[in-house]
Design goal:
The protein is built from 14 helices and 23 strands. It is of the alpha+beta class. The protein binds 5'-O-(N-(L-cysteinyl)-sulfamoyl)adenosine (5CA).
């Protein structure tokens, strides 16, 4: 992409309404624009990051054997009356009527609808286990939408639902989700710690939230600092392997880590004092096991091997896809702007032409652009007629991990400069070596 052709409405000043750094940087770098309280348009740069995150979520869900579907955002109130949640959900649910005076709502989550799909088609235990998920917009009329996309009213969420014959099978689905989420977040450059939590309006006994530690997080968390030493890495996982998933689940959840709702001061006191941490965290996902709560209310049952009709065991599992954009920025930025982890960066590399219009500099930039694109990468070439300082400030603000700077002086010596956004370290090298180095970061 050439910056002269792009839509990147960068703001010079800090927007007054933004209280936290991710919100500020998303507005300043032209990623989003508010259209109403807690409702945003995603502009080209923001949408690119959102899509990168979405792609990672899809890939990891598919690896775990889960099936993608897409359910509507607008739903009829009837199903929600069947489950009893039409009244229970309260003011967070956006309700309206269609032209036939029927009660409709904008989906805040989709347990009812997915259970309705299931009960209409699945009748035998032989069709289990089954896990279906979607990535779809949700609406919750939050009392205090704030912090930009972190607590929106409209937000993008991955919601997945497992259907199993027995409690044991459903607990395996729970563990499988936990394991798959660990890798999902790591691929985004995040450490998200599973913490025992409270189930709220979704219901059920077993639930873990995934929290990214950050001062601006909305949840107070209590944990043994040993949990921050755990990394998932690139382990080989067989998601059908009950024992393997269970043992990874135990590895990541046995040490003390809880949100304030489930915090137990007496248990916490058993953690060695120097490892006892109280901090704040951003909830980027949550997994639930709730047994037969929805299947009984909505009549979703199958025939078991003896021919007996039994309600299925279920769980639901969410990832805050749009919230993650903010969470990643909270975890990775400096005074100058965003520092994208390579897994989610909107462009792989910036190219800054220090002297637009200089034949040699222009040709060298075009050449870099061509080679990087040919290798399957997306460079962002700042080909505007701007001063070098302004170009650097824009690149730093939008946070691409690598920048190649090209100027007539360097080219006289056959070199360009490659700079890491994270470390700020610059090195001179030939354009060919710079291309190779950038490609090697991603392939
Ligand atoms: N049905 C279950 C699992 S699919 C569910 O709705 N879970 S949830 O309420 O925990 O939401 C899942 C994730 O969506 C949360 O962990 C959070 O990361 C994200 N989320 C929830 N509310 C908001 C909001 N108002 N703005 C942005 N993201 C949100």
């Amino acid at each position: 992409m050439r910056l002269s052709r792009y839509f990147l409405p960068v703001l010079k000043e800090n927007p007054a309404e933004a209280q936290i750094v991710s919100h500020r940087l998303m507005l300043r770098s032209g990623m989003i624009k508010q259209s109403a309280a807690g409702i945003y348009s995603w502009l080209p740069l923001g949408l690119k990051v959102l899509e990168k995150i979405e792609d990672i979520v899809h890939e990891e869900q598919k690896k775990a054997g889960h099936l993608a579907i897409l359910m509507p955002t607008i739903q009829s109130a009837d199903l929600w009356r069947e489950s009893g949640r039409y009244d229970d959900y309260g003011e967070e649910m956006l309700r309206f009527k269609d032209r036939h005076d029927r009660d409709m709502l904008f989906t805040p989550t989709a347990e009812e609808l997915v259970t309705d799909i299931f009960r209409g088609h699945v009748t035998s235990y032989k069709d289990l286990p089954l896990t279906m998920y979607q990535i779809q917009w949700k609406f919750r009329d939050e009392r205090r939408p704030r912090f930009g996309v972190m607590r929106g009213r409209e937000f993008y969420m991955k919601d997945g639902y497992n259907f199993d014959l027995t409690k044991e099978d459903a607990l395996h689905a729970y563990n499988r989700h936990l394991v798959s989420y660990l890798r999902t977040y790591e691929r985004m450059g995040l450490q998200a710690i599973p913490m025992r939590a409270d189930s709220g309006p979704i219901g059920g006994d077993d639930t873990h939230e995934f929290l990214v530690l950050a001062e601006t997080g909305e949840s107070e968390v209590f944990y043994d600092s040993a949990v921050t030493d755990l990394t998932f890495g690139d382990r080989e996982i067989d998601f059908d392997d009950v024992v393997q998933c269970q043992s990874i689940m135990e590895e990541f959840t046995t040490k003390y880590a809880r949100t304030d709702e489930t915090h137990d001061a007496a248990l916490f006191a058993d953690v060695p004092e120097e490892r006892r941490k109280v901090a704040r965290g951003i909830e980027v996902g949550q997994i639930f096991y709730f047994g037969t709560k929805y299947s009984e209310a909505l009549g979703a049952s199958v025939q078991d091997a003896e021919g007996k009709k039994v309600p299925v065991h279920m769980g639901s599992h969410g990832i805050g896809v749009s919230r993650l954009v903010g969470a990643i920025i909270e975890a990775s930025h400096d005074d100058k702007g965003i520092i994208w982890p390579e897994g989610v960066t909107p462009f792989h590399c910036g190219i800054v032409n220090l002297k637009q219009g200089d034949d040699e500099a222009d040709a060298a930039c075009e050449n870099l652009y061509k080679h990087l694109t040919k290798a399957g990468l997306e460079p962002l070439y700042d080909d505007r007629n701007e001063r070098a300082g302004g170009k650097f400030a824009t690149m730093d603000l939008i946070g691409l991990p690598w920048r190649i700077t090209v100027g007539p002086r360097g080219l006289k010596n056959g070199v360009v400069e490659l700079t890491s956004r994270k470390t700020g370290v610059s090195e001179e090298m030939s354009p060919e070596v710079a291309i190779k180095k950038v490609i090697a970061q991603y392939c």
